[in-house]
Amino acid sequence: MLDRYFKRSILQVHRRRVGDYLIATGNDWWRVDGRRAIGIRKFSMTRPMNRGICESTEGTVYVAEYMSNTDRAPVHVFKSKDLENFEIAWTFPPNCIRHVHALVPDPFKPRRIWILTGDLDFECHFFYTDDDFVSVQSFLSAGQLSRATDMVFRNDAIYWGMDSPDETSWIVKVRYTDPSHPEKICELPGPPYYFGMDASSRILLGTTVEPGRAVKDRFARVYQIDETDKCSEILRLRKDWSPQFGILYFPKGVLPAGFVVYSQRALVPYEGFMTILRRREDWT
């Protein structure tokens, strides 16, 4: 419990294609190659959000800044090819965004990386790069509708959830070919942070318990979205007594069909554990 506040243990792990790891604790960064842990020299960056680290098809690792940034200073995306030397890949200028929520590789467009930003209406964008941050393009800017912390991809569409505690959250879908017409497909009782997907193309997501007018109660929920875009609740977990947000985390990659895997923070029971569930046939 104390470590949730002091953040001394491992908070994020990214495994590179070559087999080594980038590991973030609350205060330090490490490269682990299987034989030893090497402290990475300090570089001017706070710990990113859970989806704020990604790797290009060429093996470059990108890390996005996520900080309070109340004065709206510049926000950077860093890059490294060796996990020893980091440099700035892209800078959002002052008063452009508050911070970067996520860097998400596109499974259908191998060179594309999506950049999700927030938090005020004019700061909420879907950007992307197809050239390793030589340039960054705008795809969607729709106020709180485009305030997202993760996204998943199915067929010719992108799915995400509105990270908007003071405005009713929805699961939203938009087609690659028509970004001007996002479609709300399911209303939620709180903002969803993270998504997952299984091998049968069912989408999983979890809502968060946090302060906000649009957060309905003290329960975080797991939802699934089937192939017809039908959304259904399959699980709920009660918020604990602590002031931290109640969050559900889903693994990157594709789960085996029929499985639900998540970990949790500030939710009961099973705080600090990973849970693996086999989906029942009547979860439709």
Description:
- There is one protein chain.
- The protein has about 280 residues and is mainly β.
- It is built from 1 helix and 25 strands.
- It has one helix at about 1-5; strands spanning about 10-15, 20-25, 30, 35-40, 55, 60-65, 75-80, 85-90, 100-105, 115-120, 125-130, 135-140, 150-155, 155-160, 170-175, 185-190, 190-200, 205, 220-225, 230-240, 245-250, 255, 260-265, 265-270, 275-280.
- The strands form 6 sheets. It has a 6-stranded mixed sheet, with no helix packed on it. The protein has a 4-stranded antiparallel sheet with strand order 1-2-3-4, with no helix packed on it. Strands 5-6-7-8 form a 4-stranded antiparallel sheet, with no helix packed on it.
- The longest helix has 5 residues, at about 1-5.
- It is globular.
- The protein starts with a helix and ends in a 6-residue tail after the last strand.
- The model has no long low-confidence stretch (mean pLDDT about 90).
Instruction: Provide mean pLDDT, rounded.
Output: 91
**Strand ordering within the main sheet:** 22-17-18-19-20-24
Calculate Rg over CA atoms: 18 Å
Shape: globular
What share of the residues does DSSP label as strand, in percent? 35-45%
**Count of helix runs:** 1
Q: What order do the helices and strands follow? A: HEEEEEEEEEEEEEEEEEEEEEEEEE
- Given helix and strand content, the structural type is mainly beta
- Kindly state the percentage of residues in helix: under 10%
Taking pLDDT < 50 over at least 5 consecutive residues as the criterion, the unreliable ranges are: none
Distance between the termini: 36 Å
Main beta sheet: 6 strands, mixed
**Total beta strands:** 25
